[in-house]
What does this fold into?
Amino acid sequence: MTTSLTINGTRHQVDLPEDVPLLWVLRDEIGLTGTKFGCGVAACGACTVHIDGEAVRSCQIALADVWGDVTTIEGLGAPDNLGMLQQAWIEHQVAQCGYCQSGQIMQAAALLAENPTPTDADIDDAMQGNLCRCGTYTRIRAAIKTASAKMKEA
Amino acid sequence: MASIGKIARRTFLIGSAAIVGGVAFGVYKVRQPAPNPLQPAEGEAALNPFVLIDRQGITLISPRAEMGQGVHTTWAALIAEELDVTLSDVRVLHGPAAKAYYNSAMVADALPNKGYDITDFQHTVGEALGVLGKLANLQVTGGSTSMKDGFIRMREAGATARETLKQAAANRLNLSRDQLKTENGHVIAPDGTRLAYTDLAVEAASIDPPEVTLRDARDWRLLGNTQPRVDMLAKSTGTAEFGIDVRLPGMKFAALRINPHLGGAMDGFDASKAETMPGVEKIVDLGTGVAVIARNTWLAQKAANAIDIAWGASPHPADSAAIFDRIAEAFETKANSTMRDEGDVSALPEGAVTLDAEYKVPYLAHATMEPMNATALYTGDALDIWCGNQSPTFQRATCADLAGLDEDAVSIHTTFMGGGFGRRGELDFAAYATRVALQMQGTPVQLTWSREEDMTHDFYRPGAMARFRGAVKDGSALMLDGQVAGQSAAQQALNRWVGLPAAGPDKVHVDGAFNQPFAIPNYRIRGHLADLDIPVGFWRSVGASFNGFFHDTFIDEMANAAGRDPLDFRLELVRAEHAPSAKVLETVRDMAGWTGQTPEGVGRGVGFTYSFGTPVAQVIEVVDENGTIRIAKAWIACDVGIALDRGNLEAQMVGGMVYGLSAACFEEITFADGAVQQVNFPDYEAIRMHTAPITEVAILETNAHMGGAGEPGTPPAMPALGNALFDLTGTRARELPFSRSFDLLI
It folds into this structure.
């Protein structure tokens, strides 16, 4: 079964069973490994991507159910062309092991798109589905606030 | 004494070797040209360099595993400090598995002293004994040892490379070496001429490295300051390569199922349904489990779950109750260790108030964010393994053995780790990948464990119990007599690593209890090992992860029995024994504005543990919000002796505490039918954004010797929270997790 997908602005055709989750299409078929596998049950947020701008857990979205354009961490910015949030992540030296951070950044990007000036409570609500075993939460919060402030200036 | 130190350092001879278009500085003095010093061909000398310079640039080797603790950056900074290069201008690599990359500090830590009480002489002996690590092939990242290990050796490597490059420039310019300076990857002549290291590399390769003197700490440019992490850009853009991200041409993906009844056999399986499922290429019988090789990981997992497997029973006690009965029985057996025995714990003066307490903590999983995985390629005469790992030399030996190859034919490629916490020091994930690859000669296979396989096949933090007796009189502690019972993680892990049989007193089992700097006149700590063989291993802070809770909670109970403020009570006892430990308690008291009083609905507790050479004190504040308790704030003070990178130390202290709070609040591995009952994060909750406290950290440098950073933040979190909950509610919980006893925000 051939399915057509738009990922980071590029059209892809994949020939796979329709129930393969988007996560594994991205990682094992298309080679976009920035999106991570953590739990497979939408409990950790490591696989967060955007579909039409909405943050979703890609481990739970079957290929057949992808309803719009997909954006992954690779589409948010590149090492030589960083997105605002990625700059803030570097400024605050957020990552430790770094494994969860793609998902954290994608979740935060969706939050800021919807609510450019989130309060601490807004950040708690939006980010509590994204687990970080290294415990980088304080710096994630600070980086979101920095990105929010810079977006306001821009 | 100086001569012992000198002998220790002499074992680390820094040689150089020519490479194509450049020079490598390593630990063996060799002259043979080696086109690739990381993988010498037959007849070429093996050189395991820490510095590689060619026309393309400068590469630093950091053979300690980067699992989030920032070791790549600080290890590279040790070299760069003396080499005079900018971290953003160099490449930092893990390097291969190699004897030359042994961990000297880990062996020194096995000496039977308390740590905080060691003299300079003992410290030097420890350094000298560190060469044993080389003999034991101990290329291990763990025990919070990396900076203690690399502190002198890596600065010497950098200085040696610098002086050799200067000599090359001196030869070219007809000047003497002492007329030259170095700056930012260049040698600078008195007339301002700048010669790039990359341009001097070929000439430097023909020069004998001179003796070097290390720079004084006052002249450091990088060390002592916060360095931007060398892995931050990659980790903020999804481009950092973890083991699970390795992609090789023609690679296949595999999934695994092993007996959930730990240690049980596989009696048979029916894979007829799985064989016909989409994308499935091969089913591999592993004897104790089954692997499915498929087009992608998910198709492999789906097919693996469709296999009907007859599992044999576990040889271990069936459930948690039976396991803890076995642990309790250990109290009645002869002590494995009496690492502290001062005064007389049986003689008490009249009027002393005595107290007893029994504590219990569960088995715990590591639950790294990146599930266990490894990629392997077997070609018949060679084996390549790609994975994040904390012990590459042991992995190489294990995988070589499985493949029937010489170790020289096996290459371990270490990637970034999506968390380690001790789990990636084990060998099983590389071993399973090897066994699968042996069935797929010529095809690389990535074997990824599902979260369920990962959580149910860990080497768990051992469950443990403690019985403490104490006596107080006139507001102070007279006696503390503690017994700790549980499985030995160290004996099991060493047996897996190098086949060492279990023997002797296990210091790690009582770490965090026997070596606490309290001046209590009658003081005894005994360790009892439980007769159990459930897979257990090193979990961030190891023995201190439970002993920190036992010991410090009991100190809090003694303070309460003595009618004293818990922070003042600790401070008085610690001041007489170890000044840096007293200083961290004073610092955290001042940071938190500790008064011993809290408003209604607010509780505060202090926790203190000395572990891995670093005393850490934490104050935690909890608030009652309509019956639900939230951890609101935390203050941490630590003394690491020498703070090489404050920004990273702060991250480690906060991260270590959060890891401890997750265990304190929620985490618990339980057993039924010999199988682990928690299979995924919904059963094994952790601290998240909304449950993490706002935290302040103070880093002190009064300690006489350098302490560890990655682990010492974890142990005091558990007693600090328990003591805060006691302050808030008046209820003393002696069992973890606290969610069993309190309504905590989740």
